[in-house]
Amino acid sequence: MTVTDSAPRSRADAVRHRLGGRSLNEIGLLAAIVLLYVVLGSSAAGFLSLDNQLGMLRDAATIGIAAWGVTLVIIAGEIDISVGPAVAFASVLVAKGAAEWGLGVAPAILMTLLAGLGWGALAGWLRARFDVPSFIATLGVWSALGGLGLYLTDALPVVLPESGLMTVLGGTILGIPTPAIVMIVLFAVFAYVARYTAYGRSVYAVGGNPAAARMAGIDLARIRVLLFATTGLLAALTGILLAARLGSGNGGAAAGLEFDVIAAVVIGGTALAGGRGTMLGTLLGVAVITVIGNGLVLLGVDSFLQNVIRGVIIVVAVLVNVIITRRARATRES
Q1: Residue 63's closest CA among 317, 268, 301?
Q2: DSSP type of residue 275
């Protein structure tokens, strides 16, 4: 075989390999989103209205901002289940700081972001220093922050003071919800970091083969602390935006958000075993979860039954994830 003959074949193999794994999942998700829009647009009254679409953007931001960090965590072979209570506690913290502790709005926001970094870094440190499984470390954070949020407020909302900054954060910019703009900006940042930086490559390496990554000189402890500190920061940011949207902090807010976030990441094609996943896939997963949730509400499906449907979606997503992973592995070996 000549060099000129092998080049087209190599390109064809590369295309076939890509379609056999990651891109196949993303194409499938795009098709699913289009199908959902067609079905819900014809069966759910008001689904295609501008107000509903803008509302879905807000809902997507609540899931998506946290999902960018959780994507990297799962790619690294870890898990973070603390997102829901962390978001709720952050909303309480910013409201308490601004309304009752006399900090003012801007310092309360800064305090909340730093606190998010702190509790995330703590979970990462427990994982890195003592080899505590990330599920257990973040379960501890889940329980502690959930309890603190309710304790500090007696399970009652804490009303935010009037603030132009909070009005902007909870409102719109040029007609687009501010949280959605924040979500898209952060998506671009995280997509770049994951694909084009040494840190991003290290995350994939750690998830693919931790022992080999350590031998290659990658500081596993540093990567893990940074990963969980990032998810803590993003959860705190989500809590601030949620408080601005609701006009108050609430220890009972964002219940079950962690499941929507993890479902979006898994539906997006990120392997639970680590080493594989993309931000684009997660973005599409966020869209699927948001559209389904919105459609179920508009169709009048019972709220308890909605949880059943979400559970089925998560299980099916994991099964599809496993099938695609096996197919991609078989394609590489053939």
Answers
A1: 268
A2: S
Distance (Å, rounded) from C-alpha 96 to C-alpha 90? 10
DSSP 3-state assignment of 260? helix
In the block, residue with structure tokens 């970094």 = 117
What secondary structure letter does DSSP report for 133?
A: -
pLDDT of residue 328: 67
The CATH architecture that domain 26-333 belongs to is: Orthogonal Bundle (1.10)
Indicate if the pLDDT at residue 4 is higher than 60.
no
Highest mean pLDDT among 25-29, 222-226, 305-309: 222-226
> What are the tokens at 14?
């590369």
Give the integer Cα–Cα distance in Å for 162 and 143: 31
Using pLDDT thresholds of 50, 70 and 90, give the confidence band for residue 334: low
Q: Which helix (H) or strand (E) holds 299?
A: none
Kindly list the domain boundaries of the chain, sorted by start residue.
Answer: 26-333
**Looking up tokens 């000189």, which residue turns up?**
217
Residue 2: per-residue pLDDT: 43
The pLDDT assigned to 14 comes to 43
pLDDT value, residue 27: 86
Q: Is the pLDDT of residue 45 over 70?
A: yes
Query: What is the rounded distance in angstroms from the CA atom of residue 12 to the CA atom of residue 6?
Result: 10
Which amino acid is residue 272, in one-letter code?
L
Bridge pairing between strands 176-177 and 172-173: antiparallel
Give per-residue burial for 10-32: e unless 16+ CB within 10 Å, then b. Answer: eeeeeeeeeebbbbbbbeebeeb
> In the predicted model, is pLDDT for residue 17 greater than 80?
no
Please say whether the beta carbons of 87 and 66 come within 8 A.
Answer: yes
